[in-house]
Design a protein that fits this description.
This protein is of the alpha/beta class. It has one domain: Vaccinia Virus protein VP39 (Rossmann fold), CATH 3.40.50.150. The chain is built from seven helices and seven strands; from the N terminus they run H-H-E-H-E-H-E-H-E-H-E-H-E-E. The protein starts with a helix and ends with a strand. The structure holds S-adenosyl-L-homocysteine, 3,4-dihydroxybenzoic acid and magnesium ion.
Length: 194
Amino acid sequence: MQESNRQAGIPDINVSATHGKLLYLLAKLKGAKNILEIGTLAGYSSIWLARSLSENGKVYTLEYNPEYAKIAEQNIRQAGYQDKVEVIVGKALETLPILEEKKLLFDLIFIDADKQNYSHYLEWSLKLANPGALIIADNVVRDGKVFDETSDDVLVKGVQQFMDLLVNNPAIDSTAIQTVGVKGYDGFMIGIVK
Ligand code: SAH
Ligand code: DHB
Ligand code: MG
């Protein structure tokens, strides 16, 4: 899948295999039934999450770019998870309200789309989470740049605002773990909704 994505010109920004496996393990630990992913790309992490599901679970994954969404659907079908993963195309801030209207609630939410909107995604995640739900966010370290308070990089600032919103937030217990792997030095935020 990674090789065909490269050939299709998909940017190499999916989670690494070891991080995909970590998502899978965390979803299994949680026994998550309904999973929400914000940022599908070509469906690599969606498939890891789908693999964790028991009989009747489902992954809803949100993607802005219709070309990526189409390739994601192909990859998901090829992996045999077409009945377990629903790709929803559009800007996440415009498609999240649809999930709310459908009264869907989630046991695990993985935030991995545009970093500038991470704070909004946290607010939406808290709204759409079951009590005890796991919220995970990717790219919260970015080579340590997130610790630079003087940074004027909008991506870094987006993550900083997100982390500020988490500190002492009464709705969620959270931490961040730094990781080093084939994609360099970065990290996951992991939190449990109260
Ligand atoms: N989770 C994927 C990688 C996601 S990369 C994996 O690990 O396999 C980030 C994705 O977020 C990109 O595909 C990008 O198109 C998408 N994205 C960016 N802005 C978005 C938005 N406003 N709404 C939904 N998706 C968005
Ligand atoms: C990049 C990496 C990511 O994991 C992501 O979600 C978005 C962008 C990047 O390296 O540009
Ligand atoms: Mg990412």
